[in-house]
Amino acid sequence: MEAAPTLRLRNLTVSFAGQDAPVTAVDDLSLDVDAGEVLAVVGESGSGKTTTFLSALGLQRGAHVTGQALLNGQDLLSASEAELSRLRGREVSVIFQDALASLNPVMAVGAQVAEAVAVHHRDLSRARTREKAVELLELVGIPAPRERAAQYPHELSGGMRQRVMIAIAIANEPRLIVADEPTTALDVTIQAQVIDVLRRIHERTDSSIVFITHDLGVVAGIADRVAVLYGGKLAELGTTEDVFYNASHPYTAGLLACLPRVDSGGRGSRLHQIDGTPPRDITSVSGCVFHPRCPMARLPSPCSTVPPPLIDTVAESGMTGEPHLSSCHFAAEVPQRADVSAPEHPGDIAVAHVERDDLLIEAVNVSKHFPLHKRSLGRGDRKVIRAVDNVSIEVARGETLGLVGESGSGKTTVAHMLVNLTEPTSGEISIAGKRLSTFSRKELRGLATRIQFVFQDPFSSLNPTMTVEQILAEPLKLNNRWDRKSSPQKIARMLRLVGLDEHASARHASAFSGGQRQRIGIARALMLEPQVLVLDEPVSALDVSVRAGIMNLLADLQEGLGVSYLFVAHDLAVVRHISDRVAVMYHGKIVEEGAVERLYSSPAHPYTVALLSSVPIPDPYIERKRERIILSGDQPSPANPPSGCRFRTRCWKAQDLCAEVEPAHTAVAGGGFVACHFPEATVADDEVSPKTARLEGLHG
């Protein structure tokens, strides 16, 4: 006899008060979470993933919930608040997305873990409760747990804070753990650590885990089943292998095709993009809720008139096996690879052929140190944060240089120095052959016509009180390039170029989705026709489907306009897809550089190897067989960097030499350079990289 589901949702409907009428976010959803399984729940923002489970647990404020939610047979929707309080933490727990916002900033983390234990075990002594908190911190892989227990959330890294959240969630070994986007805001190395912790906790406790995410690639190696939600409805449900290899809903197939892969692809290949946005009120869409965005929709009938039933495609085909549910009228016809043929580029600007050595950006031994504090009366040396230390990079006309590394590695600081948002402590930056330090005040004001910056957050980087037309006109007016006749036409042309309707110019930025706002930000950066765009994590805050559209747009713009990119990111799969060359930063230094194909196929630095192994591959078979290198700990303090090689404190190959001598840049067979005494790839004749030697000669 099969065990009853840990959580059973039946006809769950969730709505919120709207301006004129209630807005439905989840509509008649039925779903089981089986005992001991890991169920991944995926979909874009607004698909109802988090709302479904927080509403079932009584944690969604302002929600009107109907239907049934049975946790181990007990109906949560009819339970009193006192009964829910007894269940939360003991029978069910939640790992929230933003650990810093979820943890109490004025309580030590050990006390917060102990509190989770004590509230359900009042018979334990205070000493035993504190000891159990330390044991839990050790269980989730926090180094020196007894010392860390006395620290406060702001003193821990993002990865450690998320581990504290996991420790709180498992404190009472609940039957169900709901992990709500637990890895979204983390670096790939920390993401790999968190997933590894969740996997070990699942093996140890056999709890059921609901893993909520918008990224199918993350769940390929951890989930038993995958539920795909769209518009508050269940689009598809099946085993992980069935969903990845035999998608039976066009939305699932589209999501999978949107994902760049770290093990394949690259410049010249395009990602599938799902046009349009999810509906705000799902009851306003007749028939199939996905039909306005579906490439397979047959209109008007049946897709826009008849809601598709949820069918078992395995049973329908006469086969036996685990159920594979789909709510599509044409589930059997869903292609296993979405059509990703490239649309015609909207621009009409021809690009002349340029030579590789036509450099637009050249940074030579650039450093940026921030003072940590001043000693009284000026006595003694000032301690500094070494954010960037002797970094040299080049960006040629028409090429993309990807700059990758963990948070805190110095990537954004480098980007800020290139656009003169912050001044280097030492070193030299040249723009189109002229040293930035020799620019006159007038030339510095005109720097915006040569190089522009695209910020990470499309929500905070656009003025909400200005229309799109005003936002795009501002750079022209500030640089005395506004013309009453031609400039409005240029704004309309630029909106078309980035894939927006020219009528959007009259609307405010707040009226647009995240992806559309990022397009507006790119259009603003292009208004002055710069030669270089510096893009700081331009797609990290976006859904996978929106991210694919922005990446395709950037490729189109580069092809049509000949613009160069410095693409700052921590997602190596995204960087592979868009870059010609990649520079890997660690602790303020570039430890490896090379062409994409060489660096991804034969990484030379152990840090690069670890980064690549941490990136999830959206293929269950590959993801579950591949070997991972899980980096322990965090980057050392930039105020007190290690001697010798800065990576040695986390490197599995470190020897005495690594602590004594800082490694020089040496050429790698196949191109590029590496700064490592014991590189993974073959070093070409143990010589200093020709590029590095040339740059150092220029600097001298």
Furnish the topology, listing elements before pairings.
Elements: E1 7-16, E2 23-33, E3 38-42, H1 49-56, E4 63-71, E5 74-75, H2 81-87, E6 92-95, H3 99-102, H4 109-118, H5 126-139, H6 145-148, H7 158-169, E7 176-180, H8 188-205, E8 208-213, H9 216-219, E9 225-230, E10 233-239, H10 240-245, H11 250-258, E11 311-312, H12 313-316, E12 325-326, E13 359-373, E14 383-396, E15 400-404, H13 411-418, E16 426-431, E17 434-435, H14 441-445, E18 451-454, H15 468-478, H16 486-497, H17 514-526, E19 532-536, H18 544-561, E20 564-569, H19 572-578, E21 581-586, E22 589-595, H20 596-601, H21 606-614, H22 620-625, H23 656-660, E23 666-668, E24 673-674, E25 683-688, H24 690-699
Parallel strand pairs: 3-8, 3-9, 6-7, 7-8, 15-20, 15-21, 18-19, 19-20
Antiparallel strand pairs: 1-2, 1-4, 4-5, 9-10, 10-12, 11-12, 13-14, 13-16, 16-17, 21-22, 22-24, 23-24, 23-25
Protein name: Oligopeptide ABC transporter ATP-binding protein OppF
Domain ABC transporter: 7-256, 361-612
GO molecular function: ATP binding
